[in-house]
Sequence to fold (184 residues):
Amino acid sequence: MGRIGTTVDGRTASFVAAQPVFFVATAPLDPAGHVNCSPKGNRGELAVLDERRVAYLDQTGSGIETVAHLRENGRIVLMVCAFAGPPRIVRLHGQGEVVPAGTPRFAELRPRFAAPPSADVGARAVVVVTVERVSDSCGYGVPLMAFEGHRDTMQNWTDRKGPDGIAAYQAERNASSIDGLPGL
Fold:
């Protein structure tokens, strides 16, 4: 049924990279704070760096919960589900680090992603997760769904805004989390 480990093996790495969507969950330390779970499209934005590290290219969004939570406490879990083919769920628990766009380390990490260069306009960071626990479970309860393709809405939005518009949007909407934690 379920398997628990501490490293991302080759089979798991292939599965993770092949899924068109993944989910990211974080939480603040304050028990009254809001737990966050965000779906992410995977057009090459999710990469397994090695057996202990995964990373994703974080796109600008209406909130900044993941970044704020990681800066406060580092706790994160990524979940990937098979919506086609054999049932499977993989959860990658670990400690996350935010690497802001425009930094030398971001530039070092960017080539690890297969995402198109057009994704860079809206990219605000790379989130690197040092994996502490890998759980692999059956996924029998996950429905079968047909993948039609990635939406072009986000890319069209970032193209219309351009780099200056994205920076202004981030300053307005990504300065702090819904619980008041610092964001970008």
Remarks:
- The mean pLDDT is 95.
- The helical segments are 10-18, 65-72, 104-109, 153-173.
